[in-house]
Design a protein that fits this description.
Layout: H1 2-7, H2 15-26, E1 32-36, H3 43-50, E2 57-62, H4 68-76, H5 86-103, E3 113-118, H6 129-140, E4 145-149, E5 166-170, H7 176-185
Parallel strand pairs: 1-4, 1-5, 2-3, 3-4
Length: 192
């Protein structure tokens, strides 16, 4: 995720979001996070910054035009001529957890984390198989922490109804103080 963090020119910390993300990934339960909020409010960057110091985190952009396994394989650096199936992805995640536990057994509930930025199908305005796969990897199989970052505020209506296994986190747009801090970091000077 270092490449992702490096693309951001300005970041305004959001301690409440960071704390929610960290609690959810450090004490995983059988649910996946769904981060919602207005377009451009800092959802993706906030999630990535919350997990910058963690190991085993991959950030992927997913759309309905590509298979979810292909997208994750690309993010993991799997050669393009190799097709990663769902079973193989499960094995990779399981082996990652086992290897990490062998080297550092203290955090018994450690799992790799997948941050998936989702884009809805423009024709149906829904999410497809990528949400189902992420649900399987996290809630059903417990192989990974999954954080789904939705594209905009009304995108939550396109999610499958799965309230028992979704943990929603809402990210508001900037407060007035955060907006001023953002503009100050950009070095914009407003006339007095």
């Amino acid at each position: 995720i270092e490449d992702y963090v490096g693309k951001a020119q300005v970041f305004i910390p959001r301690p409440d979001l960071v704390e929610s993300i960290r609690i959810s990934t450090r004490k995983p339960k059988s649910a996946y996070l769904v981060v919602e909020g207005p377009r451009g409010c800092g959802k993706s960057l906030g999630v990535v910054h919350a997990l910058t110091d963690d190991t085993g985190v991959v950030c992927v952009e997913m759309s309905n035009t590509k298979d979810a396994c292909v997208t994750i394989a690309e993010a993991l650096g799997v050669p393009r001529d190799f097709t990663l199936t769902e079973n193989q992805l499960r094995n990779v995640l399981d082996k990652t957890r086992t290897m990490r536990m062998g080297r550092n057994p203290a955090p018994a509930q450690w799992r790799p984390t997948i941050i998936a930025e989702l884009t809805r199908n423009p024709g149906t305005f829904t999410y497809g198989e990528q949400v189902k796969l992420m649900k399987k990897l996290s809630a059903d199989r417990g192989l990974a922490n999954v954080i789904l970052v939705l594209s905009d505020a009304d995108a939550a209506f396109a999610m499958p109804k799965d309230d028992d296994r979704q943990t929603p986190i809402w990210v508001d747009d900037f407060t007035e103080d955060e907006a001023h801090a953002y503009l100050d970091k950009l070095e914009y000077l407003l006339p007095p």
